Amino acid sequence: MLDALKFFLFVILLLVTIMLNQHVTSKRSAELDLELLWQIQDPKDEYVVHNHTVPSGVYTALEQSLVIGSLLEEYNDVNTSWIGETDWIYRTNLSCLAEDYRYVLLTFHGVDTFASVYLGEQLLGSTENMFVRYRYDVKQLCDGESRELRLQFRSPVVEARERAKDRALPIVPTCPPDVYHGQCHVNLIRKMQASFAWDWGLAAPSMGIWKPVRLEYYSSALIRDLTVAINEIEVNGIELWSVVVGVYLETGLASAQLNGILTFKIIGVPLMHEAEQTLTVMNATNDDGELLVEQGLTVARDAVERWWPNGFGKQALYSLYVRWEDVAVNGVKLPNPDTMISEKVIRIGFRTVQLSQERTSDGLMFYFKVNDVPIFAKGSNWIPSSVLPERSYDGNYVKFLLYAARDAHMNMLRVWGGGLYESDHFYRLADELGLLIWHDLMFACSMYPSDPDFLRTVQDEVRQNVRRIQHHPSVAVWATNNENEVALRQNWYKTDTNYSAYYTQYVELYVRTVLPTVEANDRWRTVLLSSPSNGDQSLKERFIATNPQDPRYGDVHYYNYFLDGWNAAQYRGGRFVSEYGFQSFPAFTSWPEARSYSHAELSQLINHRQHSPLGNEPILAMIEFNLPLPSDPSADGYWPELIYLSQLSQAMIVKTETEVYRARRVEHGTMGALYWQLNDVWIAPSWSSIEYGGTFKLLHVWLRDIFAPEHLIAFVNERRLLEVVAVRDTLEPAIQLWDVEIRIHRYGSFRLVERIRKDKIAVSANTVTLVSSWDVYGHLAKQGLHPADHILMLYAYRHPMDSQQQEPTPKPIAENFALLDKLKNIRKGQRVQPTIAVNVVSAVCSDRNNLTSVSLEVSVSAPALFVYLQLTPENSTLKQCQFSRNGFLQFQPVRTVQLTCVDPGCRNKIQARDITVRTVNELLVR
């Protein structure tokens, strides 16, 4: 009777707690989300936000309560800078009852960043690292009384400033360039480095509870993390998969003796040995209440399908279930047996990933082999999806961006080291979509301290995050930092005068702390010391290579802002190009101020958001190399024209560079092309291919062709020869026969000048094949044709004997174009202004998914160069609108283009007048 009464009281208290501010999320050892009815205020009570929900941040709370406008509008990045300089308080009421639970822990999965944590008047502890999970024993305070849970946040800007004082060796750079409008000393604190501004992003030094906070009740052990190491083995001639499962058990915050059973299942997959399904554990946790238990599982090779990167096969995933049950569950009758049971399920993939660095005649190779197949890595660099950490975990937006990467035929993303360890949702999607992850640890573009307190919290950070992320088959490699090796070697921050001291700090942090911590928690992957780096060669040179950008080793980051980026002859590449790219402006209609600002005001805003120390000059210079540059910056049409030209120029530069890298797979051993960058955090000039909010720039539309698994590449090389290369990333069949057609067109006429064919080209699987190296300029000269008047259109077809079925009008499997001169050099006779009409053929909107699909017919009276379609600003309620083709060459009278938009409620009817059209032609005829 007493047990029943106690249980009844516990249930009543749980219900009261739920009604006040939280809900139950676990059926086993009780877990309560503390998410509702938080109050946020500054110490002077000038700004108070009631009934707020966490995860959250101060900027988000103040925006939602209308204390400030949107951080991302106008000049609010500067106007709201006072928020980051102010201390803030989060508070809520908490009532809990320990009952018969052995452990009651208050667990913060992410606190941004410096906070003192109180329950009632008792100080539980303090936080100092936004990437670390903090746990506090609150059992003695869970007596049924209501107490205030309070986090007193300290300004990260002020904290960083204080930590910089009285340092014998300054941690450089001390401040970002003035054009960033950022804050100083970010490298002294363990917070998202880009919170303090970057050359593509605004400063928003956030504070808050950016991940869930939970009460955890249990009486035996909690399974915190599961890790796996999956490898192919052969035993007595039988091909098997070996799966070593690491189970990280927790018993509160102190050592405790454990006696129980772990059960292992891979759902739907039989284990080779029945005895592997259970493991008896009789051991004690360490002084922090943690215990690692490992169990080997064996699976027949043919019992599962392999996991493959996007474009190479299926992304087969299997659920690994692990259950902990204390021996006491079956020994005595317990009032709450579930409190001695813990369960966890993760999804795993059966695959091998090897980073190959075999020796060549001039250096070392550097490429990934998945399931023993060499993979040319095609993709981009990922920055946080929002500058505010709590918003970066927006599941729908993350899904949109990752699907956009998958649909552009990417197979790898690099999670950049100045951002975040991403959400579980991010990695699950990467697993499902076949996106390999090159994962930096969160250190970027700086020197860092190596004092004991800093190294201690870094160890906690790396250990916790590697364990959380490790089991995902998409993760291919770890790198301990972004650009810090090259920064030290090339004296980016004037470190040469104290090189020995900075070198010692570098080795202490990355070689002696981060590297072994990663390796201790993930025995399944390679760990690189930096990016760019010379890989194994850097290790031989005492961790800092003489030239970390040596194209004969490792990976390189390549940027050029002053040589003609449209000229393929300037690109050599390296073994693996993990960063490269060029800036452009977001679409004119993407600027929320475009309709209300005058021309001069918009110019001022765009310049304010241009954070590159070089300003807009590289964009203007690259346009001027190749295109007619708008001449009057004061004209009303200046920005729409310049934005269009900037996006065209960016697309051409990244196209040219990427295609050279793909074509040089054999000649230079180039096996990776990850352009900078996929996404943005606000509407601003940047290197992204997708604007903040989801609008594709021209580059991202083009990427579907640039990264296509079967592609035909054509460019004029350094010997002034037209190089035509067939590319196949596909694995079957071993040989395909392609027919390649080169068409010579005049710019001013639909009439074809000449058609040249090369039939039955044998194109091997998973490599590149040279189709032709042709003196096109000599060929034109013999016919009295001027290169500036002509363009080449190239098409590849499956050879009829190699096709499954005969088509009356075969569709090309790949198409491309090659410029023979700069567009601005097209001679007067070929400069035409076509009449262009856009007609809506059909429009359908689905109420189920709020997706509008519109079929457009684009008609031109003469060849149209780089046709740019855009919705007018009046359609602002439509979101994530994408054209199937954009910035295209139209050398036929009619072309069909599909437009899709997210249209909540299907309220919009898109008509022809809603589509604006721009071409290079209109600039040439002026």
TrEMBL record:
UniProt keyword list: Glycoprotein, Glycosidase, Hydrolase, Lysosome, Signal
Tree of life domain: Eukaryota
Pfam assignment, any one: Glyco_hydro_2_N2
Catalytic activity: Hydrolysis of terminal, non-reducing beta-D-mannose residues in beta-D-mannosides
Signal sequence region: 1-26
GO molecular function: beta-mannosidase activity
Compartment(s) where it occurs, according to its Swiss-Prot or TrEMBL record: Lysosome
Major subcellular location class: other
GO annotation (BP), single: glycoprotein catabolic process
Enzyme Commission designation: 3.2.1.25
Listed name of the protein: beta-mannosidase
Naturally occurring in which organism (per UniProt): Anopheles christyi
Record-stated family: Belongs to the glycosyl hydrolase 2 family.
Coiled coil: none
InterPro entries for this protein: Beta-gal/glucu_dom_sf, Beta-mannosidase-like_N2, Beta-mannosidase_GH2, Galactose-bd-like_sf, GH, Ig-like_fold
